[in-house]
Design a protein that fits this description.
Number of strands of chain A: 5
Order of helices and strands of chain A: HHHHHHHHHHHHHHHEHEHHEHEHEHHHHH
Mean pLDDT of chain A: 65
Oligomer: heterodimer
Strand content of chain B: 5-15%
Strand content of chain A: 5-15%
Number of strands of chain B: 15
Low-confidence stretches of chain B: 1-36, 49-77, 203-210
Number of helices of chain B: 32
Number of domains of chain A: 3
Structural class of chain A: mainly alpha
Strand order of the largest sheet of chain A: 2-3-4-1-5
Low-confidence stretches of chain A: 1-125, 146-152, 164-214
Mean pLDDT of chain B: 75
Number of domains of chain B: 5
Radius of gyration of chain A: 35 Å
Helix content of chain A: 55-70%
Strand order of the largest sheet of chain B: 3-4-5-2-6
Number of helices of chain A: 25
Largest sheet of chain A: 5 strands, parallel
Distance between the termini of chain B: 49 Å
Largest sheet of chain B: 5 strands, parallel
Chain lengths: ~525, ~725
């Protein structure tokens, strides 16, 4: 009876491998809770039924090595029905495990240290069968005595058996190495099996065996690797959470960022300088109706900014060649495309207001505006594949823009799969020329790192308001109120600039002056209206 | 300030605030708000000259106006960099650019001519159909033209553009072009149709939706009644054409709804449809409701398929006698293969060729010699040295030495003047060579026996020459075996070419150049004709010694055994004289159909472009591989000593994202962020003295995670706390 009980958790091990470190750390009780539940999930009907199949594929790898297990199996089957235990006590489980470990010790004499000891020789299924067979062959050979023609087979069998054993030892050492890392990570808790009973070693063993099964042979071709990593049931991860880790706040993040010095700074600058050398080539390509698209790892915003400066320095007459920089990553809502088009329109003729309406109408309007002016616009678009520009309808408009002969279009793309944005007709109207511009420079403005990571981890710690909040508020204001707000902010900034030298604390802005300016800009007509606007 | 700015810009690690700060410093405070990087778009103006008020801009525009043209000239010309490590003179660089612009503009106009022509017949047919449609369309049916464009949507785009232009001008019709992406529901489609028609019709924008119904209500912008009343107000046009460019991509229910709705308006508004169809009309019809199909009355129009257009463009742009650059087979074959295997469009094809030209002139310092041999004789001494180092020239000298004309070799190497003469001579010969090449090609392709296409032949022969290859023997052999009728057809075709030239290749007739060969060919042709007539009078079939039936297999049964014997059929006198004629033809062909390949010609580096790499990199990017490479082997890009490791090793000096990426590659489809962090920290942590503090490590970890997310490697997973889902596998 005791045996049967003992076998069961051992059998479940492979299925439950998932949980590792946390369990190892302190909560053995939790192990107990999770084991039966797992069992239940595998075999929903009964606890008992789980036995047969599992013992079949999980246990034998140890079994065949020693002759006794056959004896072991039978009592278990018999004893199973009576063993309908739900939750086992702590000591109960730890003892059988200990025994089991001992059993393994007997089986694999090649093992040396205690650390390696924890490694059960569990292989991937395929290996196991070959190994099983070879083990059986070896045993038979010993029992029946060797006949000469069998010798070759025997050798092969031994070879298989030994090679797999070697592997395990290797894995064991590698894993042991990993284990060191682990112990570092967690602190020093689980490093010592002596401290916390055998249950702990068991748990550690689980971690390791999991790692082993997840680390497939090194040089798998990509597709094999995919299947190896997506095996059903293979997606077992530890229960560790980042609870113990203090997550960064925005302030911490930015202050840390300010102090951080990248060791690769010089290399990145060097890389950048290489890209800078091809500026004339890009200009040439742009001038011949191609659009340029820069891809590769790293932020290309700085590079494009330099390029804009370069183009600017090349332009002899700024009246008929303007540069518009567009930041695709800005997370404004629907209006961003409208913003882009209206800024371009403003670049052509600062007094012109594009007709309101859908983007396609604005585009038509813009085209007619372009054709009536002798002007070239260079559009520099950062991150064409940023989330805001991925919405349907954006790319066709951009393609129309890029296809216009008076528009020179250069953009950057950050994701690896950005080409999926365009179908063949869009692609041909963009008429892209692609350049690998891996810069390795960090995405500082493009990403809201802290928010992104927290979102990724499922924590909601958005910045209060954030950019979206501000834009939302501004958008809900009337045009005039918005203009007034802009005016005030501008004035305050000027005042701050001026008074920074005078070291006064709260810069003030004169009410009269603001009013006059507001009237000048036709924001409001009377003082009454001015006051109401201010209230808003 | 500008300088300071640059330095700041260079430092890669500046926070957002800094950046905005910069903006703030550079431009006036009021406009800084508009220009900050946090804005979706702004006008780049580092010096703050042109403000939104536009006053300064205007002032400047006025004062700079006089030298605008000159300035723009300069701007255009200076985009070519000086090569040879900057030693190239500015004038030479300008020469290269001018040469490029001149040559390409010629080719470009030829290509455009071709493109315009190709769709002409389809255009004419469709136009005719629609113009006459009202007369013979049964009542209650909408005239519709089904244009089978084939799978290439891009070229269809051009066709529909031309169609709507012609229809507007010649058939006096309103046209609206719809693409499936434009509209997803009936209301949106109607809105687009109505807007399209109204905006083309009216001159001023104010009139747009000024139409109101009789009782003063305003029409909704998707109400067809609004369109109707608008059409009543404006001068009547005969047709309202709605073109569905990719009709298969439309939702079939939507299309049916639209058609039935519009057909109910047919009495008042003269609608007509154009359907661009990629598959076949039957398949398209099967997708529509029966009742909708019955309200259509249409005809099918075919469009010239892409392959034949490509062929034509190949002839005008690549193989044309006036092209000064020879595109090599390596480049061309990859280009054509891409065209064939991926459905790349015609504009892509053209721009690829253009890019090849651009590369040649941009990167090859000798390319200024291209247009007319010795470009104004402005050869710097550097160039002569350079030219003498060319492998093709050295080969020429070597052969001169081998042929025991050492004096000549010496002149070439030592006498500057002699060398220049030789150079001019060689470059001058290229024109003749091209002509000869094309003639050979025509001789080859006129015979139907060669299976390879024109472009394949061109690529092979232009580069490798023709004379010893397998194909050469094959060709002569096939001529030898020609039946009299085939050879007659071949000869007459050939003579026709000689007499008229080939326009698509820009090849002039060469009767005057080679009167002797012309006479010979026509003599042979006349002889064959005569012999055929004579032979048929006598009632037997003319054949040559080599023609297929020349050998007769005879079966005789002798003493119950079958004896097979092969006899050469006895040739009649006619046959013999025909064989003689074929012999003469062969002799002639053997003498003429020989040409050196471009790679054997001296100074071919000047005008031969055969490089696949920029083409492939630039038009068929592999962004994923690039990204994966950057992340798994940053050393390839950074070139720093610290990260130089063997493959797949993780060292703490790697950029954070690269380390995370490596770890990420080992995970299964669900990743525990906590474990990832601990593994990461174990690598970069404070173990040794160079390790990072926890906070800094966490900072980098954050950034790397955010980057992985932005690049689409991970996404949030709700399966477990602090877990992320893996989305990409390397190398797949």
């Amino acid at each position: 009876m005791v045996r049967t009980k003992r076998q069961q958790p051992g059998a479940v091990v492979t299925a439950v491998r998932s949980s590792s470190r946390k369990r190892a750390r302190d909560e053995i009780d939790k192990v107990e809770e999770s084991t039966p539940s797992k069992r239940r999930s595998n075999r929903p009907a009964t606890n008992t039924g789980a036995n047969s199949s599992r013992s079949e594929y999980d246990f034998p790898s140890d079994n065949e090595e020693q002759p006794e297990p056959k004896g072991e199996e039978t009592p278990r089957k018999r004893g199973r029905p009576s063993a309908t235990k739900t939750i086992q006590a702590n000591e109960e489980i730890s003892t059988p495990r200990g025994r089991k470990n001992r059993g393994i010790n007997v089986v694999t004499p090649s093992r040396t240290g205690g650390a390696v000891n924890g490694e059960t020789p569990r292989r991937q299924r395929n290996d196991r069968s070959a190994r099983k067979k070879s083990a059986r062959a070896l045993i038979e050979k010993v029992i029946t005595g060797v006949s000469s023609d069998e010798e070759v087979d025997g050798d092969i069998a031994r070879e298989i058996y030994e090679s797999s054993e070697d592997d395990e030892v290797d894995d064991g050492t590698i894993d042991g190495h990993h284990g060191d890392g682990d112990t570092n990570e967690i602190g020093d808790e689980p490093a010592t099996p002596s401290r916390k009973s055998r249950g702990l070693t068991k748990a550690m063993k689980r971690t390791r065996t999991r790692k082993k099964s997840l680390t497939p042979p090194r040089d798998l071709p990509p597709h094999e690797l995919y299947f190896a990593q997506n095996r059903p049931g293979a997606a077992k991860t530890s229960n560790n959470t980042l609870a113990s880790l203090k997550l960064l706040t925005h302030e911490e993040y930015f202050s840390l960022l300010r102090d951080y010095e990248d060791p690769h700074r010089d290399d990145i600058e060097f890389l950048d300088s290489i890209h800078v050398q091809s500026f004339p080539q890009w200009v040439f390509e742009l001038s011949h109706g191609f659009s340029v698209c820069l891809y590769g790892y790293g932020s290309k915003r700085g590079l494009l900014y330099k390029f804009a400066k370069y183009v600017y320095s090349m332009i002899s007459d700024h009246g008929n060649h303007r540069i518009v920089i567009v930041n695709g990553y800005v997370r404004a809502s629907m209006s961003s495309l409208r913003d882009i088009l209206s800024v371009i329109a403003r670049a052509i003729d600062s007094k012109h207001k594009l007709a309101a309406g859908g983007p396609s109408i604005m585009m038509e309007n813009l085209k007619s505006l372009l054709s009536s002016h002798d002007i070239t616009i260079t559009v520099v678009l950062n991150s064409i594949d940023a989330a805001p520009l991925r919405r349907p309808g954006f790319q066709p408009i951009l393609a129309q823009l890029a296809a216009h002969p008076q528009i020179q279009f250069i953009c950057s793309a950050d994701t690896p799969d950005f080409t999926l944005l365009w179908d063949s007709s869009l692609r041909s109207s963009f008429s892209f020329v692609f350049h690998d511009c891996t810069t390795f420079s960090p995405f500082t403005t493009e990403l809201e790192v802290v928010d992104d990571v927290h979102e990724l981890l499922g924590r909601k710690a958005r910045r209060v308001g954030g950019k979206e909040g501000v834009t939302y508020v501004l958008r809900s204001l009337t045009e005039n109120a918005r203009n007034l707000y802009r005016l005030i902010v501008g004035e305050v900034l000027v005042a701050m600039d001026n008074e920074a030298d005078l070291s006064s604390e709260n810069p003030g802005v004169e009410y009269r002056m603001i009013y006059n300016k507001a009237v000048e800009e036709f924001i409001c007509s009377s003082e009454m209206a001015f006051r109401t606007l201010l209230k808003e | 300030m500008g300088k300071l700015y640059l330095i700041k810009m260079d430092s890669p690690l500046r926070s957002e605030e800094d950046y905005e700060d910069k903006q703030h410093h550079v431009s006036s405070p009021a406009s800084s708000l508009l220009r900050a990087s946090a804005y979706a778009a702004y006008i780049f103006d580092p010096l703050g000259h042109t403000d939104d008020t536009a006053r300064p801009a205007k002032r400047r525009r006025v004062c700079e106006k006089p030298d605008t043209s000159e300035a723009s000239d300069n701007e255009m010309l200076s985009s070519f960099q000086r090569l040879l490590g900057g030693a190239e003179s500015k004038s030479a660089a300008n020469l290269r650019q001018q040469a490029f612009e001149k040559l390409w503009s010629v080719i470009d106009s030829r290509i455009h001519g071709i493109l315009r022509e190709t769709n002409q017949s389809t255009l004419r047919d469709v136009l005719l159909f629609l113009q006459n449609a009202p007369d013979y369309t049964p009542a209650g049916k909408i005239p519709s033209a089904f244009i089978v464009t084939g799978p290439n949507i891009v070229s269809a785009d051009l066709l529909f553009e031309q169609l709507s232009e012609t229809l507007q001008h010649e058939a006096d019709a309103y046209t609206v072009r719809l693409r499936s992406g434009d509209a997803s529901n009936l209301r949106a489609i109607l809105r687009k149709v109505i807007q399209g028609i109204v905006s083309t019709g009216s001159v001023a924008e104010d009139e747009l939706i000024s139409t109101t119904s009789k009782d003063g209500r305003k029409f909704l912008n998707y109400d067809v009644e609004g369109l109707y009343s608008h059409l009543k107000l404006t001068p009547q046009r005969s047709l309202v054409v709605i073109a569905f460019q990719d009709s298969e991509a439309f939702d079939s229910g939507l299309l049916s709804d639209l058609i039935s709705l519009l057909s109910s308006w047919l009495g008042r508004i003269p609608f007509a449809f154009l359907f661009g169809i990629a598959t076949s009309v039957e398949l398209f019809e099967a997708r529509l409701l029966k009742s909708t199909c019955q309200s259509l009355y249409g005809d099918q129009f075919d469009v010239e398929q892409t392959a034949s257009i490509i062929d034509k463009i190949f002839k005008t742009a690549v193989a044309h006698s006036q092209t000064k650059i020879l595109l090599g087979p390596g480049f061309l074959s990859s280009l054509l293969e891409r065209q064939r295997e991926q459905v790349a469009s015609i504009p892509d094809f053209i721009s690829s060729i253009k890019y090849a030209y651009m590369c040649h002139f941009y990167a090859n310092p000798l390319s200024f010699l291209v247009p007319d041999g010795l470009n104004s004789g402005a050869l710097q001494p550097d160039y002569i040295e350079l030219l003498q180092c060319l492998p093709s020239f050295q080969r020429a000298v070597e052969t001169a030495v081998k042929n025991n004309t050492i004096g000549r070799a010496r002149i070439l190497l030592e006498d500057k003047k002699g060398f220049i003469e030789y150079l001019a001579d060689c470059l001058g010969q290229r024109g003749q060579w091209t002509t000869k090449l094309l003639r050979v090609l025509i001789i080859l392709t006129t015979s139907k026996t060669i299976t390879a296409g024109f472009s394949d032949l061109y690529m092979d022969i232009s580069y490798n020459g023709f004379g010893i290859s397998n194909q050469y023997d094959q060709f002569l052999d096939s001529v030898k075996r020609m039946e009299p009728c085939d050879s007659e057809e071949y000869l007459s075709g050939l003579l026709d070419m000689v007499r008229h030239g080939d326009k698509s290749l820009g090849l002039n007739p060469w009767v005057d150049d080679a009167p002797a060969s012309f006479a010979l060919l026509s003599e042979i042709l006349a002889g064959i004709k005569q012999l055929r007539i004579d032979a048929s009078e006598k009632g037997h079939v003319l054949r040559s010694q080599y023609s297929g039936q020349g050998k007769i297999l005879r079966t005789t049964i002798v003493a119950q055994k079958v004896q097979l014997s092969q006899n050469t059929a006895t040739l009649t006198d006619h046959d013999k004289s025909y064989t003689d004629l074929i012999h003469r033809l062969l002799e002639y062909l053997e003498a003429t159909v020989r040409i050196d390949g471009a790679r054997d010609m001296p100074f071919n580096e000047v005008w031969l472009y055969d490089s696949k790499s920029p083409y492939k990199d630039v038009f068929i990017p592999r962004p994923r591989n690039v990204l994966e490479r950057a992340l798994s082997r940053p050393h390839d890009y950074l070139g720093c000593p610290c990260c130089k490791t063997s493959i797949d090793q993780i060292t703490s000096s790697l950029p954070a994202t690269a380390i995370l990426y490596q770890l990420y590659l080992e995970t299964s489809s669900l990743v525990n962020a906590a474990d990832l962090w601990s593994a990461y920290y174990a690598i970069v942590g404070e173990d040794d003295e160079e390790g990072l503090g926890e906070q800094t490590a966490l900072l980098l970890f954050y950034r790397a995670m955010a980057e992985l997310k932005a690049m689409g490697f991970v996404k949030q997973s709700r399966k477990k706390a602090d877990h992320v889902a893996k989305l990409a596998w390397k190398g797949l």
